[in-house]
Amino acid sequence: MDLTGKVAIVTGSGRGLGFAYASALAGAGAHVVINDVDAEAAGDAVARIAARGGRAVAEVAAVGTSQAAQALVDRAVREFGRLDVMVANAGILRDRVLWKMSDEDFDDVVRVHLRGTFTCARAAAIRMREQGEGGRIITACSPAGQRGNVGQTNYAAAKAGIAAMTRTWALELARAEITVNAVVPVAATEMTRTIPAFAPYVEASEKDGAPLPGWLRKSEGFGTPEDVAGLVVFLASDAAGGVTGQCVGLGGDKLSLWSHPEEIVTAYADGGWSADAIAAAWPASVGRKPQSYGIPAPQVPGA
């Protein structure tokens, strides 16, 4: 992929998935604005990209506010003259089960993930529409937002909301030739390293450089941040010009397309449905095959 002449912003890109995305975009020729709340991490990311022959600058800001989003867009335009790609990746975790989750736990996660994605996408869309040459907005979703996950009321809600916003923006920005897609990554990061079934393999990979086992990369679709980066480069490229409104998963060796919610069973009753009528019809009609929920537990060979 050749992204020469393109300018990208990647939020939350001081480390982890965000850095992998920014590094891959720069490696394909794009100029990149690195963003992180940690100035040292952002500066280090810029230095690492420059050492590989790429061009990047750092903008230290906590995403979530309109001011932060506008500062990112303004920095891209000031440094590189335009904006072509917005990767809204920044996120935090505040995991608690429902009855232990505080208002602050909920609000902090929603502010960074949901509001942060909204404000960054809005600022990018305004600039891209002004340029009149199309563009790419890439959001970050999660299996938790698709299926739910214990202890992640705030995170799952935010990620589900991002998926809905992605589809909405794909409709709204189509005439401007701005595509909007979500990545659904599964990779070894600060957010996943605590999963007990994965932890020993992640630790060995980081400590000794041991490759992740094949069953983990294939059956579980779990890999490194670098494994996911190719998807972001593809979605940012001209090759993905006809791809929009999609939630695309990638982890390890597994590339996938997530379904969108749709009616799967319907039933009709003349005059409408009473509670008794629903109860009578449920087992043999719309309730005959309840949908699954929750992220399936990892299937460890030999366990």
Describe the protein in words.
With 303 residues, this protein is of the alpha/beta class. It has a single domain (7-257), classed as NAD(P)-binding Rossmann-like Domain (Rossmann fold). The chain has helices spanning 16-27, 39-51, 66-80, 103-131, 143-147, 153-172, 199-208, 214-218, 225-236, 275-281; strands at 7-10, 31-36, 55-60, 85-88, 135-140, 178-185, 247-251, 254-257. It has an eight-stranded mixed sheet, sandwiched between helices. It is globular, with a radius of gyration of 21 Å. The mean pLDDT is 94.
Question: Can you lay out the helices and strands and say which pair or pack?
Answer:
Blueprint: E1 7-10, H1 16-27, E2 31-36, H2 39-51, E3 55-60, H3 66-80, E4 85-88, H4 103-131, E5 135-140, H5 143-147, H6 153-172, E6 178-185, H7 199-208, H8 214-218, H9 225-236, E7 247-251, E8 254-257, H10 275-281
Parallel strand pairs: 1-2, 1-4, 2-3, 4-5, 5-6, 6-7
Antiparallel strand pairs: 7-8
Main sheet overview: 8 strands, mixed
Structural class: alpha/beta
**pLDDT below 50 for ≥5 consecutive residues: which ranges?**
none
Helices, by number, come to 10
Mean pLDDT reading: 94
Radius of gyration: 21 Å
CATH superfamily: NAD(P)-binding Rossmann-like Domain
Supply the number of structural domains. 1
Q: What CATH architecture would you give?
A: 3-Layer(aba) Sandwich
Strand order of the main beta sheet, please?
3-2-1-4-5-6-7-8
CATH fold-level label: Rossmann fold
- Global outline: globular
The termini sit apart by 41 Å
